[in-house]
Amino acid sequence: MAAVQRLFGLEARGELTSGHVRLVAQALGKPERTVWRWLAAARAEGRLDRMPAGRFTVTAEVRQLLALWGGNASRVHAELVERARKDPGRPEVPSLATLHRAIRRDLTAGERAGLRQGEKARRAHDVFAKRPPTHRNVVWESDHKRVPVQVDVEGELVCPWVTWFIDCATKVIVGVAVTPHAPSRDAVLAALRSAIDRRAPYGPAGGLPAAIRVDRGKEFLCRTVTGAMGAFAVAVIDLPAYTPHLKGTVEALNDSVEEMHFVLLPRYTHRPKLTGGRPADPDAPALTFASFVSGLLDWVQWWNNEHRPDALGGRTPLQAWAADPTPWPMCRPSSSPVSPSRTTGGSAPSPLTASAGTAGTTSLVTGYRKNAPGEVPQCQSRGQGVGRLDRVGRRSRRSGFPAWNETCTEQAPGPSRGCRPYFPPVLLRWQDA
């Protein structure tokens, strides 16, 4: 206690008077005799604080028994009683109520949950600090989200996947791609293309971030994606495993889209089930893939233009983006035989892969057909398989993806290479203005 320490110091220097004791007693609301007794205990025992009350605490033995019995305090108490019966020299066993109080006092809520249900339950009680506020395009976060909704893709029920990029400062979704299968680098490139391009229909939010945080997904860390971002001097930050809290913005977006949109759709797989695990609507008609993509893009448009997150102070993400004075990198697409109007405008969404920007009005496919030498590559309404590219000339080394910054109209050096592979229109070439 600070008051006793002060009085003890005065007494050691020979300056203590009864007035000092009386002043401390009045300030603490204690009798003077109590303060003199505290001083006597400090002189005799060297103790400046009150004597700790004798109470039962959780020991290492109790912790081990709690882990053994899955957090069951009753079984732990029975085990302690049995051990005390076999060994009379052991300390007295507390009552069950005392053991319960000690467990609640000495163990955190996360520790108690972890003893009962495991590490995942313990992590649910972890508390994390927020990152300091930044400006737009300082860092983006990206992730894949498996949609818990069965949709109809050419007569087969599948659960699509969503790949998107979100700006951490303004919460605006800058790019999104949808695939009817587990995503690969084609979905990442499609979402990146819609995120980088600020022209209609993708803008106005987007551009080039300083860094992108991802969660060790091989689709984000492949040479195709890291090479494309490296050409723009954009760092791809590979976060440690099992640390979703380090990219909390996109994880919160994954939770929000399920709670605000997916839960309302037919054939939502996380809907509460009837007795025996039977779904409540087993015969509900499934949405077509094109209808699902259209509804999701409408929700993205609502999120950017109408939703008002608490962190933005009553503004929508696009309003926060527009109000941020931070300049965005001045980039423009270079001349390319792949025309944006031919690859994105005037055609219906493909049943294979679709990507769109913040406007939420255009879809882009990633299936391609084989082109004759010198022919401008065009998208097919029904591709030959997402992630596979048929073309004249050699194939790239990784999954048939073309080399960066190459087109089919340019001739490669050397007599035997023939036509150089073109870069697909999911990500146009860019250069500084």
TrEMBL record:
Gene3D superfamilies: Ribonuclease H-like superfamily/Ribonuclease H
Integrase catalytic domain segment(s): 128-325
Segments for region (Disordered): 315-418
Biased composition (Low complexity): 332-367
InterPro entries linked: Integrase_cat-core, RNaseH-like_sf, RNaseH_sf
SUPFAM superfamilies assigned: Ribonuclease H-like
PROSITE patterns named in the record: INTEGRASE (PS50994)
Name the UniProt record assigns to this protein: Integrase catalytic domain-containing protein
Organism in which the protein naturally occurs: Streptomyces sanglieri
